[in-house]
Design brief:
There is one protein chain. The protein is mainly alpha-helical and 174 residues long. The protein has one domain. Helix content is 73%, strand content 0%. The longest helix has 26 residues. The termini are far apart. The model has no long low-confidence stretch (mean pLDDT 89).
Length: 174
């Protein structure tokens, strides 16, 4: 049991740097201009979730160390979301409810994006359209296709990044 506790903190010192890089990537203005994601809390959460999911998918192939880093990264992500929700004025009683909703959204997106990334057809585009552009019932297909292409390109680029970069706290996005 002590071994598992020690292992779970293995990457604690680099997790904030990796998370900061993911946040910086997700805050690039092009997602809100070129990809037409709404520039509000939901839109920013969606773009951050996309990048978290892409990194977590990459780390899956790294065995136990990848799993450990992934869990620490997810923990850091939800600690950050907790702080953001509090800064938005949510009282202590409502924070856990909002975090639970965000977690459900995040893990739902992870499931459908994972499935979509693993297929060659329009599954990813449809998942992006439903989850990132739900308000664009008729005109979201083009934006969803661009975002799906971006996700595939980024996933491919992340495959080329060594685990030493991820576990060393160095930037993974160029």
């Amino acid at each position: 049991m002590l071994r598992k506790f020690m292992r779970s903190r293995k990457f604690k010192s680099v997790t904030p740097d990796l998370y900061r890089d993911i946040v910086a990537q997700s805050r690039q203005p092009r997602f809100y201009t070129d990809y037409n994601v709404e520039d509000n809390f939901d839109g920013r959460f969606n773009v951050l979730s996309i990048h978290m999911i892409l990194v977590l998918e990459r780390l899956k192939s790294e065995g136990e160390d990848g799993e450990t880093l992934s869990q620490e990264l997810v923990d850091h992500f939800f600690d950050d979301m907790d702080g953001v929700v509090r800064e938005m004025g949510t009282g202590d009683m409502g924070v856990s409810h909002k975090i639970k909703k965000l977690a459900n959204r995040f893990y739902g997106r992870m499931k459908v994006f994972r499935e979509g990334l693993g297929q060659k057809d329009d599954v990813l585009k449809e998942a992006v359209w439903r989850n990132i552009y739900p308000e664009k019932v008729e005109d979201g297909a083009g934006d969803a296709a661009k975002m799906a292409d971006y996700m595939r390109r980024t996933a491919s680029e992340l495959e080329k990044v060594s685990f030493a970069v991820f576990s060393g706290g160095k930037p993974v996005f160029s």
